[in-house]
Every structure is written in structure tokens, then in C-alpha cells.
Amino acid sequence: MRKHSILASSSSLSRAILASTEQQQQQYSKLFHTASIYVGFNGGSSRRWFSTSVRSKLSADYSRASKFSLSLGAFAAASVVAGSSLLLVKEEAYAKELVKPDLAFKDVVLYQYEACPFCNKVKAFLDYYDVPYKVVEVNPFGKKEIKWSEYKKVPILVVDGEPLVDSSAIIDQMGRKIVLEKASSMVSNDDEETKWRRWVDDHLVHMLSPNIYRNTSEALESFDYIANNGNFSFYEKYSVKYAGAAAMYFVSKKLKKKYNITDERAALYDAAETWVDALDGRDFLGGSKPNLADLAVFGVLRPIRQLRSGKDMVEHTRIGDWYSRMERAVGESSRIKT
Ligand SMILES: N[C@@H](CCC(=O)N[C@@H](CS)C(=O)NCC(=O)O)C(=O)O
After folding, report:
1. Residue 81 is assigned to a structural domain of this protein
2. pLDDT value, residue 19
3. 150 in a domain, yes or no?
4. Which residue has the higher pLDDT, 327 or 67?
5. Is 71 a domain residue?
6. pLDDT at 98 (0 to 100)
7. What are the catalytic residues?
8. Is position 55 within any domain?
9. Does 153 contact ligand 1 (Cβ within 6 A)?
10. How far is the CA of 6 from the centre of ligand 1 (A)?
11. What pLDDT, in 10s, does the model give residues 55-69?
């Protein structure tokens, strides 16, 4: 009965959207654009699984090595130890960058939507540089959590009381805070890095909505996660899943037109291949370590990775190896669980 009425209301909503004026459609679009970014899964658990399995693989290697050394003698043992060290060196190359304790921030709070690609870009940066942060999940209807702010979008990062807005600007400013003292080339005007960071904001992010809402089952898959992980009241949670999925299905068709996309999957695969071509055989765009463009691409793709579209992307393109290296490099989330 309840399901029936929800479906009925979502189909009236769809009809309403189809019949609405351009101005009304913009309002629908705005309402559900906000909900639309609630897509994806917490990459933390898969990363934890990954690092745990790498650790257990290494310890299994060590335990095998010691048995081997007992039976074959010191020479063999030395070779195995050398082999394991090589594994460790490779693992180290993919490790996160640690901010020195004297540069640590006292209080970092991220106002976000769990699956917003821009918020995930900031999280990838904070996780990679191991900056501990608290998260405030904003309710898109009303946004009372950011009432204090004139800027009404997320992410907003409050660093020791100072609010920073806009994902790329936040990363630039945080980068400068760290780099000034660290004297490394983390924030550079490197043309390649800047160019690909822009590509993420101007091109890659626009591939997401048309893909995750491309048909009713993918739209429902996306909104199931959104409903269960966002900050919604009991009633909002149920209406968001069905009404949101129905609305975004239609909105995504409009977005396809706006961004000149004919086949959304092909466009997503094409973007993934373009990125792999840009790597030009390197582990990361930054070389042996990720740079800010690597972190930006990884951040916006992370929310869709476990959805149908993300799985298809990894299955049908060459991006998977780089993505796995990024998971290892970014490592565990530095989010403070409250
Ligand atoms: N250029 C901004 C875009 C931020 C943005 O559009 N955020 C969306 C969530 S993904 C938002 O807050 N939308 C709220 C709204 O449009 O009312 C950034 O990079 O941070």
C-alpha cells in the first residue's frame, strides 16, 4: 500500500515534470540537483579491506619466508627478505603524504553531502595528506547546518575557525598552508596538473549524473544509497528514494542535451581512457606520487565506483589499475568518527 502510493506519487511527479514550464523544470532540477549528489558508497571500507589484505599478504610472505629459510638456509632466506623489501618499497611509494605534526591543524570541519563529487575531491585531499577532519552532513532541504554561511553550497571546510569554500579553492588554500612550510612542490603552477584539474571540473563531473541516473534501475540504485546515507528526516528518506530517482531520471536527460552527450556510457568510458592516456605510462600524473589532478579525478570518481556505472567503467576501460594505485596511496580515511 505504502509502496503503491509512493510509486504513484513519483509517477505524478514525473508527469508534473514533463508538463511543467521551463521555469518550473529549473526548480525541480534545483531541488533534485541537491539530492543528486548523494550518490556512491563509502570508499573507506573497501580501502580498509584493501590495506588489510595487503598487510596480511605481506605478513603471509614473511611467515612463508621464515619457513623457507629454515629449510633452505641463510642464502635463500636472504633472497626472500630482499624480495619482501622490494614489495615494501613499492607499497611505500603508494603511501599517503604525512603532514608534519607542527603543521597540524587543530580543528577541521567539512560540511558536505556524503556523495557529492566536489566534497569527495576535498576528502581525497584530506585523506591523502592525513589531515584529521570532522564531518557535518548537510540536509539538502533547508540546509540548516550551514545557516551561518552566506555561501549555500557544499563543500565548506572550516579550518581552525576559518571557512573555505569551493572545492578547488579549498584544495589550493589547504595546499598552500601545508606547502609553505613543507617547501615541496605540492601546489605548483605545473601546466599539466592545472590543465587536468580544470578538466575534472569542466568535463569529468558532467559525465556523472547522466550515467548514474541513465535508466530507472540505476536511478533507484543511486537514490537507495542517497536515502540511506544522507541527512534526511524519516519522511524525507522515503520520498527521496522514489521521487528523487524519478525526477533525476528526467533531469539527467536534460543534462545530456546541455553537455552534448549522446551516449552517456561511451562518454564516461571516453573520459576514463582520456585520463589513462594523460598518464602516459606513469603510475600517477604526478609521477611516482599522486598530484592534485590525480586526487581530483579519484575524488570525483570515488562516489560512483561501486555503482553500476563505476563498475562498468572499470570493466570496459584501462582506468582500473590507476584507480587501485590511488586507493592504496590515499589509504584510510582521516575522518574523525564522532
Ligand atoms: N564549484 C563548486 C561546486 C559546488 C556544488 O555545486 N556543490 C553542490 C553539491 S555537489 C551544491 O552544494 N549544490 C547545492 C545547490 O545547488 O543548492 C565546488 O567545486 O565546490
Report:
1. yes
2. 34
3. no
4. 327
5. yes
6. 77
7. 113, 116, 118-119
8. yes
9. yes
10. 28
11. 343 344 334 444 333
